[in-house]
Amino acid sequence: MNTRRWGLVAVIALALAAGTMTATADPISGRWEGKFDAMGQLVPFTMTLKLTGDTVTGTLESEHTGHGEAKDGKWKDGTMTMTMVFEQHQSIVFSGKPTDDGLAGEFKTEGFSAKWTATKAKD
Q1: Residue 18 carries which DSSP code?
Q2: Per-residue pLDDT, 110
Q3: Confidence of residue 3 (pLDDT cuts 50, 70, 90)
Q4: Per-residue pLDDT tens over the stretch 65-118
Q5: Please, which residues have CB within 8 angstroms of residue 46's CB and are 6 or more apart in sequence?
Q6: Which is it for strands 41-52 and 92-98: parallel, antiparallel or unpaired?
Q7: Taking a C-beta distance cutoff of 8 angstroms, is the pair 73, 66 a contact?
């Protein structure tokens, strides 16, 4: 019985190492190049995210907002939510999901909401 159990453990370990199985999928960690629609004008940004369990942390940089830090970031049921807090801009509340092309969602700030999209940055 112990031999079978160790055999199963070895098969699972090899499958994980080969990439044919994933223990926990993480579709959001990394650096992202995106754009948000600020009242009809597309504003580029760079966002770096890290998923640890169900907690999302990260930063956002744009010419429009400056540097921002993620607060209260959550990952639940395939959706991320967070508030980016900036020194010289009103906070922006983001929600989004992975898409075939990257990430996409909505943001709310300064009394309006609009869409944003991002693709994985090429490092």
Answers
A1: H
A2: 87
A3: low
A4: 999 999 999 999 999 999 999 998 999 999 999 999 999 999 999 889 999 999
A5: 31, 32, 33, 34, 60, 61, 62, 121
A6: unpaired
A7: no
* Residue with token string 């309006």: 112
CATH no., domain 25-120: 2.40.128
Phi, psi of 24 (to 5 degrees): -150, 120
Count of alpha carbons within 13 angstroms of residue 80, beta-carbon side = 28
User: Which is nearest to 94 in space by CA: 36, 43, 32, 53?
Assistant: 36
As a whole number of angstroms, the distance between CA 54 and CA 79 comes to 10
The residue assigned the tokens 């898409």 is 99
d(CA 37, CA 25): 29
Question: What's the rounded mean pLDDT across residues 49-54?
Answer: 97
CA–CA distance, 98 with 10 (Å, rounded to integer): 32
**18 is written with which tokens?**
């080969």
Closest Cα to residue 63, out of 75, 48, 45, 81? 45
